[in-house]
Specification:
Blueprint: H1 2-18, E1 27-33, E2 46-53, E3 58-66, H2 72-81, E4 85-92, H3 93-103, E5 108-113, H4 117-130, E6 137-139, H5 149-158, E7 162-164, H6 174-181, H7 186-195, H8 213-221, E8 224-227, E9 230-233, E10 235-242, H9 259-277, H10 285-307, H11 326-336, H12 341-360, H13 372-391
Helix pairs in contact: 9-13, 10-11, 11-12, 12-13
Length: 394
């Protein structure tokens, strides 16, 4: 009988320990690291949740932005397909602070969330549940499911009451926001504008602004929790944990080679070559084949992202008019069947589509990168030259 009582008492004690909440005085916070230009994936900033309970010996940071390159070729394939899985990682606060303050040298903020003891326990239990091996991985989505939206969703689900966000009346689009954060990465902006379609030019709702850590932090500063007739601020206290140290910026030659400059120089060179070579009245296959091949290679990526990728905002994409797989066929025909009518008609079709992109520029809801215009003109010029030269030989 005593053994049975001891066993039951032990089980009860274990259950109590297993579900024991955080000690009084514990705090739960939203951490925000401002953007850093060290790498593309740090250009947007970062959000995480801090659980600090000195009495329990706990000071952990829960981070939904962990990913691994692993096999780079496999990672790139998954990334293009939109099948990149991120996971919840846990580290000590000291490590998180060290990364923000010393490795990245960025402003680092903490917003202590005003939670009841019961709400703190619920948030902590939800984080522990998410960190279980079978739960910690999730399908990353840049705009809708990332390191900022996950902490927000945790708080929304575990807080007793309605979270009342401030009205922002935002007028910016997703593309505007991307450009805002990538001002010092012009070539990456150029590449993103190739890949993302017209949905990127939709005005972002106030709630969806929170996919960016800085905007989530700004929203939280003015957010309240409605419970019955009472409305309390969501954030109890805001702390500046680290201020960015001024670092002199040195510009190299490559910093002046912007997409606009490079693309217009390319256009001038192509036009000059076309005028000079046109005197021979012969097809310039040595230029046209690799040119169409390069356009078609990028066009194949645009085509894949439109129809086969899980990435958001890649369909529809008006860039398909001047960047598409048809250009690969044009390159192959120019190389291997340069005298055929097929080459003539395929190149003519490529030229008509490029012309449609140029003329439709002001009419499309999709916003093109300014550096696309010289590239479209290059394509139109070379297609026109090919058609004019070949027409005489048909």
């Amino acid at each position: 009988m005593r053994k049975l009582i001891s066993l039951v008492a032990g089980l009860v004690l274990c259950s109590v320990c297993a579900f024991a909440g955080l000690a009084p005085g514990a705090t739960i916070s939203l951490l925000t690291s401002e953007p850093c230009n060290n790498a593309v994936f740090t250009a947007w900033g970062h959000s995480a949740i801090r659980v600090c309970s000195p009495a329990d010996g706990i000071d952990r940071v829960y981070n939904y932005g962990v990913f691994s390159f692993g096999d780079l070729s496999v990672f790139l394939v998954k990334f293009v397909k939109g099948e990149t899985d991120y996971r919840l990682g846990v580290t000590s606060f000291d490590n998180a602070y060290g990364e923000a303050a010393f490795e990245k040298n960025v402003n680092f903020y903490e917003q202590v969330i005003d939670l009841t003891d019961e709400e703190k326990d619920k948030v902590y239990e939800a984080l522990k549940l998410n960190y279980k091996k079978e739960n910690r991985y999730y399908r990353y989505n840049f705009f809708y499911d990332n390191c900022a939206t996950r902490p927000r969703d945790i708080f929304e689900k575990q807080i007793d009451g309605s979270i009342v966000y401030p009205e922002v009346n935002n007028t910016m689009t997703y593309r505007d926001l991307i450009h805002e954060y990538l001002q010092k990465m012009p070539w990456f902006t150029f590449g993103i504008d190739i890949c993302l379609g017209s949905e990127t030019d939709a005005v972002v709702t106030d709630r969806n602004l929170q996919f960016l850590p800085n905007y989530l932090m700004e929203a939280y500063a003015k957010t309240g929790v409605q419970r019955g007739d009472s409305l309390r601020p969501l954030v109890l206290e805001t702390k500046v944990l680290n201020e960015r140290r001024p670092v002199p910026e040195e510009k190299g030659f490559a910093d002046y080679l912007t997409p606009m400059l490079v693309c217009w120089i390319f256009f001038v060179l192509i036009v000059a070559h076309t005028i000079y070579y046109s005197k021979t009245k012969k097809p310039d296959n040595i230029l046209d084949a690799p040119l169409f091949f390069l356009y078609g290679l990028v066009g194949s990526l645009v085509f894949f992202l439109m129809f086969f990728s899980e990435h958001p905002c890649t369909y529809p994409n008006c860039n398909i008019l001047w960047l598409n797989p048809l250009q690969l066929l044009a390159a192959a025909l120019i190389l291997f069947r340069k005298q055929s009518k097929a080459a003539y008609y395929v190149v003519a079709a490529v030229g008509v589509m490029a012309l449609a992109a140029i003329l439709g520029w002001p009419l499309f809801t999709q916003k093109f990168h300014p550096a696309f215009l010289p590239l479209m003109l290059v394509l139109a010029v070379r297609c026109a030259n090919f058609v004019l030269v070949r027409r005489k030989n048909l």
